[in-house]
Amino acid sequence: MRLKDKGIIVTGGASGIGEATIRRAVAEGARAVIADMNAEAGEALAAELGDEKARFVRVDVTRSEDVAALFREAADFCGVDGVFNNAGVGGLCPAVDYTDEDWQHIIDINLSGVFKVAREAMRHMQEHGGSIVNCASILGHLGQSETAAYTAAKGGVLNLTRTLALEGAAKGIRVSSISPGYIKTPLLEVLDQETLDFLTDLHPVGRLGRPEEVANAAVFLMSDEASFITGADLLVDGGFAAGKS
What we know:
Elements: E1 7-11, H1 16-27, E2 31-36, H2 39-49, E3 54-58, H3 64-77, E4 82-85, H4 100-124, E5 130-135, H5 148-168, E6 173-180, H6 193-201, H7 211-222, E7 233-236
Parallel strand pairs: 1-2, 1-4, 2-3, 4-5, 5-6, 6-7
Helix pairs in contact: 1-7, 3-4, 4-5
């Protein structure tokens, strides 16, 4: 099993891509911490998987004290060998209509939160190494109207990942990222069929991605099979970015 005897943290772990990653990590032999704001969903998932295999910790990734407490509990429960830095929010808004508060909210979670989790992970991995996987996006590589804050944050995640990979390499800490295309998660359930069809057509493979497909990539990058991979970004996008420059 790819993650046998490893301790894994997944932020945003109670639903969507995060939940799929928790399930796959446990199936691959890990003990896992489900880090999320949604206590009801997180506790239900932990109960389903079993107390010996999973634990829920409520965390706001924008609060350094929450993040530090998360890692203390994870270190006690299972150790910290791998982290999938997945918590994030979206939203559409023309740049001219963004309020300062809306801009800052997206940056705080999608970029500053990623940094705070990665920073704490690197502190815990100083002695034994490990793997950090940051969730970026195709919209970190490409622009899209009405996503100024999101694209700015995800572009930042890509360069943050490269920089942290350089800083962590000598300590055996690998830092990589995943850039998903549009994935069929609860975040897309609010969209009408016309919008869903439009998003589907952006992917040459002819469909939206599944959470499990991103989870597969995250588990691989956290495993020893990816031991020579760091500072890299893995597109899981059904070909979305292949024909765009």
